[in-house]
Fold:
Amino acid sequence: MLRYVVNRLLLMIPTLIAISIIVFVIIQLPPGNYLESYIAELQAQGESVDPQKIAFLQSYYGLDKPPLQQYLHWAWGMLHGDFGYSFEFNLPVSKVIGDRMLLTIIVSGITILFTWAIAFPIGIYSATHQYSWGDYGLSLLGFLGIAIPNFMLALVMMYLANVWFGTSIGGLMDPQYIGKPWSWAKFRSVLEHSWIPVIVIGTHSTAGMIRRLRANLLDELQKQYVVTARAKGLPPRKVLFKYPLRMALNFFVSDIGSILPHIISGTEITAVVLSLPTAGPMLLNALKSQDMYLAGSFLMFLALMIVVGVLISDLALMALDPRIRLQGGVAR
Amino acid sequence: MNAPRDLAAIPGEPEHFVSTAPFDPTSVMRLTPEQERFYLASQWKLMWWKFKRHRVAVVCGVILLLMYASTLVSEILVPYNLHTRHTDFIYAPPQSVHWIHEGRFVGPFVYSLKKSLNMETLRRDYAEDKTRPFPLRFFCSGDPYRFWGLVEASFHVVCPSEGATLFLLGTDRLGRDVLSRMVYGARISLTIGLLGIAISFALGLIIGGIAGYFGGMADLLIQRLIEIIRSFPELPLWMALSAVLPVTWSPLLIYFGITGILAMLEWTGLARAVRSKLLALREEDYCTAARLMGAKPKRIIARHLLPGFMSHLIASATLSIPGMILGETALSFLGIGLRPPITSWGVLLNEAQNINVVALYPWLMVPVVPVIVVILAFNFFGDGLRDAADPYR
Structure:
């Protein structure tokens, strides 16, 4: 069991290295380096450029060195919590993004819980009542959830909330908490504000999950042991809960690997529309203004979130499923 | 020799009978014509029969076919050119088509719009001028355009009569007809999915084929690569890559660039499917036979292995088209995807980016309707195809 955990952790290292290389390549791709565009921008605004500062930044980031050394410098810095320098905010990246990342994690986490809470009962209902009206209706609802673009749903919900409840739901907390240190009251305020983003982000992944859970449970319900159990005269409820549901539960936990990227993507675009103080809007801005260290850190962080999320789901799966636990192999 | 004859002679026993018809030992095994038609049908025919039974999928297929057909003749279908501006009708609400004017049947017609500036809200208010009906003209000559950007023409299926306008879905901030732009937008939005899937299909086949057929080191590397790509959240990565596209590129190049970016992340699912199937199939006897006869790997994969699950692959590829269409829509909505003058549904929705639009000009959000329809249709169609391609159902 310990071997499995260690194996799994070791496997993360090459993945993370590869991800960081990809991110670095992406932030290097735009023509010219960011310092040049930064200087050009400053000059365009008629501001004077402090040559000393430029020289400092140039040497600090090793911009005069070959790309490989630059990468090593960047990666080494990240390991020490130095994510680079945001040219737009004139601040170290870690100072700019700290709070936003925490909020991204909170919103994504709540969304996952929401997705589970909704998808689980509906998936079971759909599978046990296959081809009933309820099944058809819920399936259609699920398909609609997949088809409606997140951002449009966000806009309409924002409008409706404004009309019906008279509240402005942009933002993620009451104004008095912005910029304040974390407290219980602030956390509660975030929870109160997050229901619309959570619904908006959750619809897509909930719909997908319902469909997959239904298909999975249906496969399970057609197996021989279920027929045997039924033939022995077990009550239907027990037949369902004792075995097939447990099997489907495995899938339920491992499915997080496939919904997490969607949830994070959804968080980004919804956050742009609802102007939530999560990673989304700032990532978009950073990309538009080619503030590449900032954008790179965001990308790196989001990918890390998924890798860790999948790790957690794998560990949970191990706890649930004796086949993986005893085999000690890496199940992917 | 005599015994049987004696037996047959016993009274009451039926006489020994021998049929004179020629003996055909396979007669009981012969199939009825219907059975024969079924058993000898090709795989694609079987799929087609199975698919036909899935009503919703067939309807969705027809809808998609119509939509794709409309992209061939967008210019003719709609009353206005993509870029025609009506500076007198900015943010005009949708006009409705009437049939009866002052109790008299006129046929389909519209009333002209009267504009007034509301000085309190600083909005343009439009009201119908009910004094005179303007009948619609059908198969008429109207707003000029270049058909497929090549031939000058002015033929439309429907146009407004002289002096009137026809904005069935209103106009945008430059006074352009939303309906016309939406129908034009289908061209880009629908083809980006097809083009993207073509690229990712090719990538998935090649890369998945290598991983599955050769196995070993290549398989390991490719598996890792797929895992890494899948651990990126799609949208942020798309955003990052499309932000990298140079500003100096022409809109057409951007279009191909975005398609490439969408395809670059979508091939992983297909590659996985190809790999797992190939891993199982390459152990089959017919594959060994082909190898013994000296067939090269390329031929074995392409000629013997792929056709075995091609139908299934195509079905699952269909299911990943909607993701690409949504992706393009999202990118363009955020303003880092396609840019004007290229018009896709996402570019149109870019106009509806804030809550004011929802409150004041809700008709600008209408381009989301075809997006939803197309995605639903592709999902049902793909589901039907997949069920039809699955021999075990």
Notes: Strands of chain A lie at 85-86, 91-92. Chain A has two domains: 2-92, 98-331.
